[in-house]
Structure formats: C-alpha cells, structure tokens
Design brief:
Number of helices: 4
Order of helices and strands: HHHH
Number of domains: 1
Structural class: mainly alpha
Number of strands: 0
Distance between the termini: 4 Å
Shape: globular
Strand content: under 5%
Length: about 130
C-alpha cells in the first residue's frame, strides 16, 4: 500500500475510534511513534502553503490542524494525516525531492509500522483476508 493510502486509511481508522477510545495505549502510541513525523508533516504543509501549492488551504486559520468534526483527542492527528496524504497524491514521485522522500521514510517509519499493525489487526479480527499496508 502506498504511503498516501496508508495515511488515509489510518486516519479513517483513528476517526472510527473517535472519542470513545477505551485504551489510551493507542493514543499514546500515535503520539510517541508519530512525534517526529507529525512535526515534518506540519513543516511540509507550511512550506507548500507558503509557495501557494495548497489550493483552498486553511493553514493560516487558528487551530487549522484540528478537525472540528472528529471528536476526541486524536482529531488534530487525523487531519494532519489526511492533509499529508493529499500532498502526496498531488505530487508525482518525480515531483518530490529525494531528500524529502528520505525524511518522510525516516521520520514516518515508526508511525507507518504502527498504522500497518493496527490496520492488519482490525482486518484479522474482522475475518478479512491479509492486507499489505
């Protein structure tokens, strides 16, 4: 599964958990494993917005990293993941500089692994076939 799809699916999964997460370990793991990656995401989106590359972006608005429609403490992370996925989809592989691709893989490695594990676990619990996020 490509990184954009993984980010979208993981954001959807986190949204589904919403404010009713009984196990704080999930939220703690997202914050722990995604700390560097979410920092990188915000800098990428700020940079793209400054260049005018994000049409219709609301990055200047106060609290723009929080999705008001999503309840719970994870809302700002699901919005960041979706915005980043949109960024990736708007670029072709040749349109992203090699150092940036390296930084995405380096800083996102732990969160990508967590996302894959969570999505695979849910698929297994639901009796779905194996996926390879």
């Amino acid at each position: 599964m490509d990184r954009a799809s993984l980010c979208f699916k993981f954001a959807d999964w986190l949204d589904h958990l919403g404010g009713c997460v009984q196990d704080d370990r999930i939220l703690e793991a997202v914050e722990r494993d995604g700390e560097r990656f979410f920092h990188l995401i915000q800098r990428i989106l700020d940079y793209e917005h400054a260049l005018g590359g994000l049409e219709g972006s609301d990055m200047d608005e106060e609290n723009s990293d929080i999705d008001e429609e999503i309840p719970g403490r994870i809302a700002h992370r699901t919005k960041a993941l979706r915005d980043f996925a949109e960024f990736l989809r708007s670029k072709t592989q040749g349109g992203i500089a090699e150092p940036l691709l390296f930084a995405i893989e380096r800083d996102g490695e732990r969160l990508f692994h967590l996302a894959s594990c969570c999505l695979n676990f849910v698929s297994a619990v639901n009796g779905e076939g194996p996926e390879s996020p």
